[in-house]
Amino acid sequence: MKEITVNADRSHLEEVQHFIEIELEKIACPMKICMQIALAIEEIFVNIADYAYHPNTGTVTIRSTIQKSVPAIMIQFLDQGKPYNPLERIDADITLNAEERAIGGLGILLVKKTMDNVKYEYKDGKNILTIQKNLK
Hints:
The protein is α+β, with helices and mostly antiparallel strands and 136 residues long. Helix content is 33%, strand content 29%. The chain has helices spanning 13-26, 31-52, 106-114, and strands at 2-7, 59-67, 72-79, 117-123, 126-134. Helix 1 (13-26) runs antiparallel to helix 2. The longest helix is centred in the first third of the chain and has 22 residues, at 31-52. Pfam families: HATPase_c_2 (PF13581).
């Protein structure tokens, strides 16, 4: 397992994405899967940066584990911000046009649709959002 801890601020998104890109390069991850993971990371990290500690600031730890038996990558986002389970949110209704849809929710729907497993837990004062993407 590898991990990085950064301030939960949008200015650190590129650093977080680079951290995961390095791990994916080591295992020759297919480009399509890399792009899906990059979008999921952006969505999750930006939401933590914008909402977890608002109006204060804090940190987020990103852990990456390559599972060779599956093969898959598991990425965890840990923060000590306000408890919030994004998976409890009702999925955005993508059958409605943009004017009729409620604001928000498209990003987490994208994460749920493109990752093979997404789970949330609140443990020891931390939000822990885990995504898993199978690599084949």
